[in-house]
Amino acid sequence: MVRARDIDDLPKNAANYTALTPLWFLQRAAQVHPTRNSLIHGSRRYTWQQTYHRCRQFASALSNRSIGLAKTVLLFLIPFSLFAVNYIFVFKE
C-alpha cells in the first residue's frame, strides 16, 4: 500500500516552493499593475510602479551609506502615513 504524502513532506525546490516576501509582492505588483493605485492618502495617489521605485530609491540610499543586512535603522514615522507604508517594504527583504 502506498502512503499518501502531504505537500509539506516534499523537499523544497524551484518547482514546488518559492519564498513570498513583501519585496517580491511589491515587485510583482509593479510588473503586473504598474498604473493601478497602490496608495491613496487624501489627494495624493501613488501607483504600484511609483511605490516600487520609491522603495528601491530608499534602499539604494541606505546601501550607499553602507547600511545593509544586519544593520539597525531607526525611523521616526507618523503612524499610518505613506512613508511608513513605503519603508515597510524596504526593510522586509
TrEMBL record:
Record-annotated membrane-spanning stretches: 73-91
Gene3D superfamilies attached to this UniProt entry: 3.40.50.980
GO molecular function: ATP binding; ligase activity
Keywords linked to the UniProt accession: ATP-binding, Ligase, Membrane, Nucleotide-binding, Transmembrane, Transmembrane helix
Top-level taxon of the source organism: Eukaryota
Similarity field: Belongs to the ATP-dependent AMP-binding enzyme family.
Name of the protein: Uncharacterized protein
Source organism of the structure: Cajanus cajan (Pigeon pea)
